[in-house]
Amino acid sequence: MLLANLPALQVVIPLVSAPLCLLLRNPRHAWAWATLVSTMVLAVAVMLAQRVYAEGTISYAIGAWATPWGIEYRIDMAGALMILLIAAIGAVIMPYARRSIRHEIARKHITLFYTSYLLCLTGLLGIVVTGDAFNLFVFLEISSLSSYVLISLGSTRRALTAAFQYLVMGTIGATFILIGVGLLYMMTGTLNMTDLAQRLPEVTDTRTIRVAFAFVTVGVSIKLALFPLHIWLPNAYTFAPSVVSAFMAATATKAGVYVLLRLFFTVFGSEFSFTAMHVGEILMLLAFAAILVASLVAVFENNVKRMLAYSSVAQIGYTILGISLASTAGVTAGIIYLVNHALIKGALFLALGCVFLRLGSVTLKDMHGLARHMPWTMAAFVAGGLSLIGMPLTAGFISKWYLVSAVLAAGYWPLAVLVLVSSLLALIYIWRVVEAAYFNVPGAAMHKVKEAPASMLIPVWLLIGVNLYVGIDASLIFSMAQQAADTLIGQALQ
Amino acid sequence: MSNLLGHYNYWIVIVLMMTGFYIVIARPNLIKKVIGLFIFQTSVFILFISMAKIEGGTAPIIAEGISVYSNPLPHVLILTAIVVSLATTALGLALIVRIMEAYGTTNEDEIHVQDEQD
Q1: Is A139 a member of any domain?
Q2: Structural domain contains residue A6
Q3: Closest by Cβ to B95, choosing from A138, A167, A185
């Protein structure tokens, strides 16, 4: 009974827990509750992923209303990988959050933080599991609205303006998606994604569908911060609490990429998306610009958190580059890149949160000589940084390897050169941090700084450990990603 | 001409949408931005609701002798979307209150000037 309802539980558990969390006025109780819930969410995600891996796509009718009339939850291999990623990151950051949040957020706001966090988790998981276009919009807004709150809880006043800027852009994006969904419904009379995919080919050669496609694509692109629609991201990540930056960088934009995959391949079909609408060429160009421009900006950035934020924009470019090839190899590379980057950026932002806890700053000039006082934190940062650059034996190498092979197989060798050049740029900006932390003389204020607490270091090193593990043995993630790409592209061919 | 007038609902939607969008982009006052955003969202609600109307259709309540009903689904969808839009507006205004407390202004340009000085 319980097992049969796992897809619903995945979303319902955090959704119901969020208001309950609000009732717990005590910050410590709220933290314990959120930790318990995120662990349960992870357990459900693992069980679901196992089932999908063994039995294939799961289709679940909410309230037993038969599809396409009722809302369908549909989890295929790509979805299973995504819920696993989101739930795992969500659970890993919880032990970390206790100290970090107590340091960065006013006591009276801590309960609100955990409530918003649970709602954000609900929204992100919902985006992935739902098979209904309008339901997608609702979950997108749940995750967006709660992330505006999470960002606004940052310790400086600029967090407020960053959250407001994100609110304006995010709402425009979500409304664009709503317009697109409305136009699709107008032409087909259905909202179920599988049903849409079956009915769209009849009407696909109309201006309405083309406009719907454009609206939805632009709307989702704002959400996943595709260059040049990324301008909300650097401020949001820089001024949000450290845990939120890590959580959002590892999950929110990734859920957006998944929506894009779902739309291009499942709903519209790759024939329409890539041949008729030429979205592949457009995405490739934007990915090219994202990788080059954002990496260059990151090189000149002195605030390390903002540096990582710009690096995220570049990394999203890599993922999109893989998808824009529209081949199985390309989409596989895109999915691997997405998962690995979530692990890398999550670890890097968490390590930076440790620095902020002890140092109260994340600018390069304040980090001079930091490695002597926080060896474990900085070692984690270096390991994550090497993975970001793409050193062999790290997850970053695996994702870049598959991406470059996919790009070469498609015959775009200048893009492969671009990937290598921008890896060099990553080397430069990570090196600037290493130089400051390891090779500069510490300032007078530094002698008071001590290593971060174990409750924060363990989650960081857990993510780094997974990074190194994937770097050595990538067979599991590769087989999952390839199966996911096969399902996505296979659906398009039917 | 009949094409122009026959699609008058779309023209209303487009005018409202562009009005809202313009306010969001062009006005430096944050409260006006939220109002613009609200108008922008409302135009989409009208798009949905106007497409539910079926010529000669009546309210979707089963009754004898009636065979053509309007489509009730878009209304239900938009009820949900209105709740979302309400939450967005409330959150936006709440953020503006906090921004006013922290910066002493709701003008985007003046906030930028203050941020530059930091």
Answers
A1: no
A2: no
A3: A167
